[in-house]
Amino acid sequence: MMASHGWAVLLPNPRGSDGQGTQFTEDNFQDWGGQDFQDEMDGADYVVAQGIANKDKMVAGGWSYGGFMTSWTVTHTDRFKAAVIGAGVTDLTSMATITDIAPSFLDGYFGDFASHHDMYREHSPVTYINNVKTPVLVVHGEADDRVPMSQGTEFYNSLHFMGREAQMIRFPREPHVFAERDHQEALLTHVLDWFSSHVQ
């Protein structure tokens, strides 16, 4: 959708993803926002160096773990002109207790919650919310049990209370992956409009 409107799109495969062997998949153990973030910034640097992207007109966005990465990105760099956080994990501490795949999901990434509480906080984007300068659109489904809407609400409200540029759009009835066609189309429209309004 973005490419059809003239955008160059980078879809990175950072450490912690699959397709590159077991070690590559496990490289973000206890390191969300570490090597994976560096991989994505290296990708952004590369497309700028190749003349594919204009460093003054870049935006960022992602869904689920990509939403985590986007919320981590805007709390750790202001290089992007706008961002969209879709169904994003923003607070690992609360996520560990409310997701429908607790406790095994985050335990597998960080270790048991009781013994690694500080690590959960240190790798939560909301911990660094005061650093955000990027305009942020938060999108979430109200029926999301995987990454409950409170994750997006917490991040949005924190930005709103600090007077940062932010909007949140909630979609009724939608789980973690949107099912209703009208909502799927509306989501794409909102994403395109948000990015286009911040990059001429």
Automatic annotation (TrEMBL):
Assigned keywords, A-Z: Hydrolase
Domain Peptidase S9 prolyl oligopeptidase catalytic residue range list: 2-199
Top-level EC class as recorded in UniProt: hydrolase
Gene3D superfamilies (alphabetical): alpha/beta hydrolase
KW Transferase (keyword) present: no
One GO MF term: hydrolase activity
Pfam families reported in the protein's UniProt record: Peptidase_S9
Highest taxon of source: Bacteria
EC numbers, comma separated: 3.4.-.-
Name of protein: Alpha/beta hydrolase family protein
